């Protein structure tokens, strides 16, 4: 082997460090303004009690195999049945993570000869799935329905005859803005297209009982939705909901589902309990929306920020080094706010990602804004 075997990896890491893009792991510290535990369920007594009761009655920690072998536990099937009913779908499938679920959908469902159109700001897992899949794929400008239709029109003019698939997030994880859902559904109907909707950040927070932003279109045979269990639901894994035919197809043709060890049955218990809590404890959503509104007013009045209207509030800084410095200063003051840099976000849009959860109250939010104003004045 020529040269030091680790040299090119060291060089890459050094290059990232020079650009202030080197990632490192750090322990949790400070008030939570960075997690996706929007409803504060992750450490809730009710979720913990449900898991403890499952352990007491003999539910195993591990699934022991893939779902098609011995890994198909009663807890998985109970969660999927409840999720299908809750989200108004024919069927639900439980995956180990949202990332794997998105990757699985985009590699398994769009076929060779089909056209997949992906919002340019969709999650990295969707981009990876699109690149690894069999369908031709195009990127469309963010939330631009006309750009999506133009891509379909061009494809048809060039002889494309396959099915069209349109993939996007309903609530975007870095900007906190919503997709134009009604317009995309109408567009899909005009072109007999399928929609793949990542509801990761809307599940539990938006829609009736937290059913998400696609809830108004439940039961359609051209919509597949992904609901992560590791954000507002406080557990882990992800639920794919949609027409029974497509879910059955995934069981038979989706390699990330077929060949992966099933998620822990205990996590299925936790996710199922969290779905019940969405219906039983609506005040959690009310309180979260109140805190979102309060934070929006504070940031608008004191920092000139345009509120996103959601629990995800970006604070744009632009310069990578200043973003890192501001985030570090806030963390030193006891506020866990992270700086988000390229390639996670586009060049020139480095930002603080301020996440609002029930793990903080209005006094905490006011204190955070005080610290932000002070840090910005000196950074």
TrEMBL record:
SUPFAM superfamilies: PLP-dependent transferases (SSF53383). GO terms for biological process: biotin biosynthetic process. Its cofactor is pyridoxal 5'-phosphate. Residues 31-372 form the Aminotransferase class I/classII large domain. One of its GO terms (molecular function) is 8-amino-7-oxononanoate synthase activity. The keyword Transferase applies. Keywords: Pyridoxal phosphate, Transferase. This is 8-amino-7-oxononanoate synthase. It comes from Mesorhizobium temperatum.
């Amino acid at each position: 082997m020529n040269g030091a075997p680790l040299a090119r990896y060291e060089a890459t890491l050094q290059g990232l460090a020079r650009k202030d893009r080197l990632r490192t792991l750090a322990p949790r510290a400070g008030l939570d303004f960075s997690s996706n535990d929007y409803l504060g369920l992750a450490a809730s007594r009710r979720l913990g009690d449900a898991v403890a009761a499952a352990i007491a009655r003999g539910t195993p920690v591990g699934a022991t195999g893939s779902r098609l072998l011995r890994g198909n536990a009663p807890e998985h099937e109970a969660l999927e049945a409840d999720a299908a009913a809750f989200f108004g779908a024919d069927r639900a499938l439980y995956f180990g993570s949202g990332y794997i679920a998105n990757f699985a959908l985009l590699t398994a469902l769009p076929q060779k000869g089909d056209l997949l159109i992906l919002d340019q700001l969709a999650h990295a897992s969707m981009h990876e799935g699109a690149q690894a899949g069999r369908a031709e794929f195009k990127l469309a400008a963010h939330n631009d329905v006309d750009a999506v239709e133009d891509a379909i029109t061009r494809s048809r003019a060039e002889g494309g005859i396959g099915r069209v698939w349109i993939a996007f997030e309903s609530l975007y994880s870095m900007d906190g803005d919503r997709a134009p859902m009604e317009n995309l559904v109408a567009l899909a109907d005009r072109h007999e297209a399928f929609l793949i909707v990542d509801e990761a950040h809307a599940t539990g927070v938006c829609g009736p009982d937290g059913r998400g932003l696609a809830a108004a279109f439940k039961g359609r045979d051209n919509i597949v939705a992904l609901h992560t269990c590791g954000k507002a639901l406080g557990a882990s894994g992800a639920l794919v909901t949609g027409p029974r035919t497509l879910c059955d197809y995934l069981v038979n043709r989706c390699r990330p589902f077929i060949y992966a060890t099933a998620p822990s049955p205990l996590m299925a218990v936790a996710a199922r309990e969290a779905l019940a809590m969405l219906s039983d404890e609506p005040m959690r959503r009310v309180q979260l929306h109140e805190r979102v509104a309060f934070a929006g007013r504070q940031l608008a009045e004191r920092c000139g920020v345009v509120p996103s209207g959601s629990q995800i509030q970006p604070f744009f800084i632009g310069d990578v080094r200043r973003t890192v410095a501001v985030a570090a200063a806030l963390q030193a003051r006891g506020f866990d706010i992270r700086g988000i840099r390229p390639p996670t976000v586009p060049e020139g849009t480095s930002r603080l990602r301020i996440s609002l959860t029930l793990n903080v109250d209005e006094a905490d939010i006011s204190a955070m804004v005080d610290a932000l104003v002070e840090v910005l004045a000196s950074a």
